[in-house]
Design the sequence.
């Protein structure tokens, strides 16, 4: 079972639809037991870092997410869901993130000719082999919608980067924790391949 964490995040429906398209039966929930009993857990997200953390805490989900990660259940953060895994964001000074991974969430620097938020398709570079990108070629295009970006502290966890005004750490992987700044659920066949790779993770190990 694939649990999609519901904390009024914005892009839950599109993630659910993509998972259904892959022949899976996702459950959208904020119930602790359902999340902890899932084979895979997805944390979607669109909106502000501070508001999202407030909702996660008000629904009692911070401890649940920490437990999922500690249990070694494959966990995927998408867009804002990636940013929340880190310690803090320039978007919401003073608000603590989940702190599962180390790094900074920074505002995309202004650059002539580039609009912020960054909305649209960008190609990915793969600095190291990531399990989410199995079967995909470097320079595959994915869809982004964001004004803030990740600069991970541990370079070795970065599995995909893109360039938009600066070098953006577009995807990370550490043990059972995976995250994408882009939206795989809106990234056509490439995105579905990424989600399928995530869903199939431990199935291949068995």
Sequence:
């Amino acid at each position: 079972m694939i649990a999609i964490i519901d904390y009024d995040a914005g892009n839950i429906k599109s993630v659910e639809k993509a998972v259904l398209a892959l022949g899976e039966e996702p459950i959208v929930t904020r119930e602790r037991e359902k999340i902890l009993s899932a084979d895979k857990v997805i944390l979607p997200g669109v909106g502000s870092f501070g508001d999202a953390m407030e909702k996660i805490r008000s629904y009692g989900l911070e401890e649940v997410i920490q437990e999922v990660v500690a249990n070694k259940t494959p966990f995927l953060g998408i867009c804002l869901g990636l940013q929340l895994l880190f310690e803090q964001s320039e978007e919401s000074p003073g608000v603590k993130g989940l702190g599962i991974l180390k790094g900074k969430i920074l505002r995309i620097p202004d650059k002539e000719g580039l609009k912020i938020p960054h909305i649209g398709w960008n190609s990915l570079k793969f600095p190291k082999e990531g399990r989410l990108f199995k079967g995909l070629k470097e320079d595959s295009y994915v869809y982004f919608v964001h004004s803030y970006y990740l600069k991970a502290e541990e370079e070795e966890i970065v599995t995909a980067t893109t360039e938009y005004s600066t070098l953006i750490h577009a995807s990370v992987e550490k043990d059972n924790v995976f995250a994408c700044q882009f939206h795989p659920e809106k990234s056509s066949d490439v995105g579905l391949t990424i989600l399928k790779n995530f869903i199939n993770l431990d199935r291949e190990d068995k």
Summary: The CA atoms of residues 123 and 141 lie 4 Å apart.
